[in-house]
Each structure stands twice: as structure tokens, then as C-alpha cells.
Design goal:
Elements (H helix, E strand, L loop, with lengths): L1 H19 L11 H17 L3 H24 L5 H24 L21 H19 L4 H21 L2 H8 L1
Helix pairs in contact: 1-3, 2-3, 4-5, 4-6, 5-6, 5-7
Length: about 180
């Protein structure tokens, strides 16, 4: 809840600051119409679904994602995409290291992680974790094929940790997705 609240506060303050400065210029994106179409589908599903509590939580999540998408599509320029990919991949490497740590459950210094096998890192189950690794794995190749030695090292380290995590996850869906 705190992440959602923080994100909503950030989005609100950003839009308020943009409105005060009178710099509200909306950029159009090729994905905009598909995102809006999906949001209309979610609202229609809410209208016809019998379990209103589940669909209300789903619609709240989609409102948050819609706000994040449109805000960041206004802020992010083509120059910032490489930086965002770097942050995303480094975050994925940290999450995968945590997943590997979770599989063994060994204490390191004053940090202690309970042993959970198969690991699911910060996700709800191992299938979500496997899907996340499958999505991020191609981005590691941008590190491996890059020119900077630090990024190459991080890419190879991330690939090794991803493969080890994949071995311990035992997700049939993740293995299938890796080959698709």
C-alpha cells in the first residue's frame, strides 16, 4: 500500500507542478490507444463481474498503472531510455541475487533471509519470478554486448545468477517461456 500511495502522491504532485507552470503539453505515443482500450476493458469487466471486491482491487491497480504509464510517457525522452534500462536491469540483478539467497537461506552479516525453496524473491510465487527473469534476460545482452567493461561484467554476473535462479525455481511455465 505504501508503494501505491507514494506513487500516487508523486503523480499528483508532478501533475500539479506541471499545471502550475502551465507546461501541460501531451505527447502522443503509439501505445496510448491500446492502453486506453485495455482500461475500458477493465472497467467493463468490473461492471459485469460478480465479485466486486476482486474487480475493485483490479481496477485500482490498473488506475495506478495507467497513471504511471501516462505520466512517465510524458517525462521520458529518447535520451533517458538507456538510463532507465540500466536501472531496470541492475534492479533485476539485485532481485535475482535475493532470490538465490532465499533458496539457501544463509545469514550474511546481520541480514537474515528465511530459506524458501523454490525461491520466489520479491514476487508472489516462483512462476512470477520466472516470468520476470525471462522478460529481463534479453536486456542483459545489451550489457554483455556493450563497450563498458563494468556493464559487461554486470551482464555476465546477472546472466549467471539468472541461470542459477532458473535452476532452483523449477517453473515449467518459465522454462517454456524461455524458449518461446
Amino acid at each position: 500500500i505504501s508503494i501505491e500511495t507514494g506513487t500516487l502522491v508523486f503523480l499528483t504532485l508532478f501533475l500539479l507542478a506541471a499545471a502550475v507552470k502551465a507546461r501541460v503539453v501531451l505527447k502522443k505515443n503509439a501505445l496510448d490507444k491500446w492502453v486506453v482500450f485495455y482500461f475500458i476493458y477493465v472497467i467493463a469487466r468490473y461492471a459485469f463481474m460478480e465479485d466486486k471486491d476482486v474487480s475493485r482491487m483490479e481496477i485500482e491497480k490498473n488506475i495506478l498503472c495507467l497513471g504511471i504509464y501516462f505520466t512517465f510517457s510524458q517525462v521520458v525522452s529518447k535520451n533517458n531510455v538507456k538510463e532507465i534500462v540500466k536501472i531496470f536491469v541492475f534492479s533485476a540483478i539485485l532481485v535475482s541475487i535475493y532470490g538465490l539467497w532465499q533458496n539457501f537461506g544463509t545469514p550474511v552479516l546481520w541480514f537474515r533471509v528465511p530459506r524458501i525453496s523454490p525461491p520466489y524473491a520479491t514476487f508472489g510465487n516462483q512462476n512470477f519470478f520466472a516470468a520476470y527473469l525471462v522478460i529481463v534476460f534479453p536486456l542483459l545482452f545489451s550489457f554483455i554486448t556493450g563497450k563498458k567493461i563494468f556493464l559487461k561484467f554486470a551482464g555476465w554476473l546477472g546472466a549467471a545468477v539468472f541461470v542459477l535462479d532458473f535452476r532452483y525455481i523449477n517453473s515449467r511455465g518459465g522454462i517454456l517461456a524461455a524458449f518461446v
